[in-house]
Amino acid sequence: MNKSKIGIIGLGTVGSGVFKTLKSFPEIEIVKIAVNNINKPRNIEGLDKALLTDNAQEIVTNPDIDIVVEVMGGVNPAFDLIKTALENGKHIVTANKEILAKHGQELFSLAEKHNKVILYEAAIAGGIPLIMPIKTILAGNRITKINAILNGTTNYILTKMDTDGVSYEDVLKEAQELGYAETDPTGDVEGFDAAYKITTLATIAFGKRVKYENVYREGITKIRKEDMAKANELGYKIKLIASAKIDENNNADVRVHPMLVLKNASLAHINYVTNAVEITGNPVGTVVLSGAGAGEFPTASSVVGDILAINSEIDKNSSILPMMHCKHDLDATPVNIDDTFNKYYISITAPNAIGVIAMIGTICANKNISLSSILQKEVFENKTADITVITERCQEKLIKEVVEELKDCTVNSIIRVAD
Ligand code: HSE
């Protein structure tokens, strides 16, 4: 049995889960764990304080260590630590989606140069096996489409808004009180977290590098409880969807934004903090993987799997785990959101005047936009009417022009609708 020595950088939720899980694997010896504060009380059974250091350099330069496990998060100083570790001949296991999205190209090139691997199963959708299956079992496919729920916090908020009929602000407050959402929730609710994850996922699945700066991103903060209710009435749920599509000419449309998804679609049934990824490829068709996208033990499951994968291959080949290398010579060509084609849900508060619906219809018709539903239930005493429209597929830039022309109305929300 191969034995590997590892150093862990970070002993928060994920690091603790990794430490506890590794107790069952005598082939992995933890040599050092880097933490911010050695004296912080920690309730981790079997943790010998002598393992701790507050100097992560001791890990990344330690000649005894084979694998560096980076579970501290954030770009700095993790990025420099990973680089130094690679330069010192370590393999890397990381859960750091932000670094992979922003600096993946540089790190994977450095890993190639030093004939080392960076494994990151935990970085995308926590405990769901995703990267390894794409690189191995699905390797015979041309993957052309991914639709996914990659952020548990936002899925929790949208699920609660839907089931309890309450506002975004109210659910966020409750989620923060319960510890489900961060005190500063920006990274989750504005879609950054999901955008980091879909950047790397699309790159792996398409075999072409997708750049984070080309990923279109919108969060969930503008979703109103009225939109939830209306979507339900029309047969949909609202979800924060991370999507990626590539065509035969290498044009990649990669984005994160809220979407109306039909109630019978698989992603509509993914609730609370659960994540799910729907992958479409040829010849496999469509497969859906779902499970816990975060949390101590689901994330540890993926980190430990990566450590064991490297351990089982170490010293066997001159180039270990060949399928795990991550080398993309070609960049995908980004598609601008204005050039994409989508269906749209548009909520409009219009003056209650004769011909208002005809006016909306005419503005759309003049741009060759066909309407698939139009809903107005009543008019209000303040002489306004709420009108909800769902369009057929049309170009995004034309929808922006429609909104400009609806100047006598208030456009409350525009949300894209899944095909
Ligand atoms: N904050 C993320 C989420 C988990 O809410 O899903 C870590 O990526």
Topology readout:
Blueprint lengths: L3 E6 L3 H10 L5 E7 L17 E2 L3 H4 L6 E4 L7 H10 L3 E4 L2 H17 L4 E2 L11 H5 L6 E8 L2 H13 L3 H10 L8 H4 L2 H15 L9 E2 L7 H9 L2 E11 L4 E12 L11 E9 L2 E8 L3 H18 L19 E2 L6 E11 L4 H11 L4 E5 L8 E8 L2 E2 H10 L4 E8 L2
Parallel strand pairs: 1-2, 1-4, 2-3, 4-5, 5-6, 8-10, 10-13, 10-18
Antiparallel strand pairs: 7-9, 7-11, 9-10, 11-12, 14-16, 14-17, 14-18, 15-16
Helix pairs in contact: 1-11, 3-4, 4-9, 6-7
The protein binds L-homoserine.
Overall description:
The protein has 419 residues and is of the alpha/beta class. The protein has helices at residues 13-22, 57-60, 78-87, 97-113, 131-135, 152-164, 168-177, 186-189, 192-206, 225-233, 296-313, 356-366, 396-405, and strands at 4-9, 28-34, 52-53, 67-70, 91-94, 118-119, 142-149, 216-217, 236-246, 251-262, 274-282, 285-292, 333-334, 341-351, 371-375, 384-391, 394-395, 410-417. The longest helix is centred in the C-terminal third of the chain and has 18 residues, at 296-313. The N and C termini lie far apart (51 Å). The mean pLDDT is 95. The chain binds L-homoserine. The site of L-homoserine has 7 residues, from helix 6.
